[in-house]
Amino acid sequence: MQTLEAIAKRKSTRDFDPDKAIPEEIVDTIVKAGCQAPIGGNDRKSLHLTVCRNKEILNEINQSTAAAMKMEPRDFFYGAPAVIIVSASEKQMAPGIECANAACVIENMLIAATDAGVDNIYLWGGVQALAKNADLCAKMGIPEGFKPVSAAALGYSKSGSSEARELSVSLAVNYI
Description:
The protein is of the alpha+beta class and 176 residues long. It has helices spanning 3-9, 24-35, 55-68, 97-115, 125-131, 134-139; strands at 47-52, 82-89, 119-123, 146-155. The protein has a four-stranded antiparallel β-sheet with strand order 1-2-4-3, with helices on both faces.
């Protein structure tokens, strides 16, 4: 698949088949794509990736997130069998750069996932609640001094993958 074709085909999936696992070599390729993302200041030690395929831990994150958000329990990962959490060091070179860096990493992973035929979604809200649960972060092996910023949920849609759309300008743009 060509890069622009993968970009045009990528869409957010909210109906993953929790029982259809992604082959490990594909997950590894997706992680490698994320590691090639541009990082502000080229400070690659400021980010950490946690690949979670453990359903019990994902369920624990869901319960913790629902409690923190004072909501009824739900699946914040939409049944995805794999979630890659991007955490950032609390020591950053500029305010907010951790969000930009995590977004670059995740975008690379989402495009690589689409290229490999893996459906995906960018996650932010529930991850913010996870960041406040130090015990769960430690249980997941997130290094001390790092906080989850955002995540990519990966899997295969129950309703099938999307067809490529035509690339178009859908945001406000001006040319000077």
